[in-house]
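In the design runs reported in the main text, the only information available to the sequence generator was the tokenized backbone. The following block is the verbatim input for one such run; it is reproduced so that readers can re-run the procedure and compare outputs position by position.
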């Protein structure tokens, strides 16, 4: 083998060794690059999965604050879409960059929809708060009106009671005495033949004029009513009660004196005798007389 051929083989050997070395280094670098990218895609996939989860939680939170069926259904549709995308991402390989990018775009789209719905929810909440405040103010005004009406009703009732009281007769200067058979005043029941009750009917320009029935009840010490053949009953409140004697007067609105007499017709026990005067179904005056044996 000549010298020139030997040199040629040596040169080729050096070149081959260099090529082999370069290929080895290039292959090593390419493997490192692929491993690095695979790790990056896996990390990006994991981050994307976390974003899907957080966004799904946000949708669930907003569903609880929505009181609108249409908007609630739209949120539910987006939640289902998120669930589908999350499942699709779970099944996507980490190195499938094209699919991951597509899912990122869909996530951005869903996030934009959520922002739009959030704005609608906030707007509805503001409207609802304004309506709630308005309703509260309306209720407050209604309560004030109701309270004012109740006060006015009470005032009217009190005024009607005052008018009713003012329109009825009243008796004043009531005086009861016991008389003996000579017409003299006595405190002894044994000597008493009659009781006299005198009083004045007060002047009253608001009372109705005309004939008025005056009823007198004489209560014995045991609170039984003295009665005779001329006694009867009259209406008082919702009851019919006994009277001892009565008298009809023509009332003119002016003050006028009245006297009534009760002839003793039974044995009486000593003690306090009460005289009550009624007119128009009302008790208009009372007095008493204490008698001895």
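Verbatim output:
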């Amino acid at each position: 083998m000549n010298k020139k051929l030997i040199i040629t083989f040596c040169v080729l050997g050096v070149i081959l060794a260099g090529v082999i070395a370069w290929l080895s280094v290039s292959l090593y670098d390419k493997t490192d690059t692929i491993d690095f990218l695979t790790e990056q895609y896996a990390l990006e996939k994991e981050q994307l999965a976390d974003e899907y989860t957080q966004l799904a939680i946000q949708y669930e939170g907003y569903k609880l604050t929505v009181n609108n069926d249409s908007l609630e259904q739209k949120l539910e549709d987006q939640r289902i879409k998120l669930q589908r995308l999350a499942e699709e991402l779970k099944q996507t390989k980490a190195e499938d960059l094209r699919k991951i990018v597509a899912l990122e775009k869909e996530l951005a789209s869903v996030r934009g929809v959520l922002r739009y719905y959030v704005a609608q929810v906030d707007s509805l909440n503001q409207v609802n708060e304004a309506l709630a405040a308005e309703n509260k103010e309306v209720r407050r005004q209604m309560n004030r009106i109701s309270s004012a009406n109740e006060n006015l009703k009470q005032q009217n009732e009190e005024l009607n009671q005052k008018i009713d009281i003012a329109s009825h007769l009243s008796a004043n200067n009531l005086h009861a005495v016991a008389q003996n058979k000579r017409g003299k005043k006595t405190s002894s029941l044994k000597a008493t033949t009659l009781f006299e009750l005198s009083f004045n009917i007060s002047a009253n320009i608001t009372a109705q004029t005309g004939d008025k029935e005056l009823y007198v009840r004489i209560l014995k010490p045991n609170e039984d009513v003295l009665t005779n053949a001329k006694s009867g009953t009259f209406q008082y409140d919702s009851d019919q009660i006994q009277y001892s004697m009565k008298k009809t007067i023509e009332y003119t609105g002016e003050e006028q004196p009245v006297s009534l007499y009760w002839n003793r017709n039974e044995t009486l026990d000593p003690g306090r005798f009460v005289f009550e005067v009624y007119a128009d179904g009302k008790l208009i005056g009372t007095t008493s007389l204490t008698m001895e044996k």
